[in-house]
C-alpha cells in the first residue's frame, strides 16, 4: 500500500517543532501536522517570513526565532521553548543549506556542516529533556541522497579550511545527519520513550538548490519536470517518519521511485559508510566538543 498524507494519524495534543518551516519542505511538513491537530512551532531564522507562513496555515501555529548558523541563537531558541512548552512530541530537523560558496557560520564552522549538522545537533541536545519524558516522541532529521555523493567525514579538515568543494562539503553534512540519527537512536533505545528517525525528500522543487553550480543547474533544468516532485510530495517521507505508528527508531525513509528521486515514502537504506559505528561515535564526540552541548543520554557499548 502506498503511504499518503491521508494516513497521517490525528496529532491532537502533540507539540511539533519544525526548523526551516517558512518555505519548501518545512512549510509543507508543518502545515500537514497543524492540519492534523498538532500545535506547531515554526523555528525560523526570519521571523517576519515565519509569521507570513503561519498566516497561511490552518491550526495552532506559532513562530520561534532560530538561526542555526549561530550557537547563541540555538541556545536562545531552546531556552525560549523551555519556557513556552513543557513538552515536545516531535522535533523535525528540516532546515538546511546546499552547495553554498565557501563561507562560515557565526561560530566559524563551514556553512553547510555548521548549519545542516552542528546547528541541529546542538538544538536536539538542548531540547532532548523535553522529549525524553514523552512516550512516542521522535526526533526526525532530514538527510539527502546527496550523502552518497563524495560523502565522507573529513576529521582532518572538518571545516574545509585547507581546500573546499561545495559538493563534497554538502555530502559530508548530509552523511553527518544520518550518522547523528543512528548514534542518537542507540543512546535513546535504553530509555524506551523517544525514537530518532531519518528521512530524505528525493529531488523536490524547492529553493534549496539555488546555490548549485551552473554546470549542475543547466542540465537539471532540462529534465526537472521528469525528475522532481512538488515540495508537498517531498515532505511525505518526513511526515511518515514523524507520524506513522509502525516506524522504528533508526529507520530511514525516502521516495519509492527510480533512484529514490520521487514517489511515495518507503523504508530505504543509506550508504554503507553511514553505518560505521566507530565513525558515528567519533563524529558525536567531535560535535560535542565543537558545540559545547552534552546530551542527557550516554554512549551505549556496542558488542
TrEMBL record:
Keyword Lipid metabolism found: no
Gene3D superfamilies: NAD(P)-binding Rossmann-like Domain
Pfam families membership: adh_short
Keywords, sorted A to Z: Oxidoreductase
Keyword Oxidoreductase among record annotations: yes
Sequence similarity: Belongs to the short-chain dehydrogenases/reductases (SDR) family.
Name listed for the protein in its UniProt record: SDR family NAD(P)-dependent oxidoreductase
Species name: Paractinoplanes hotanensis
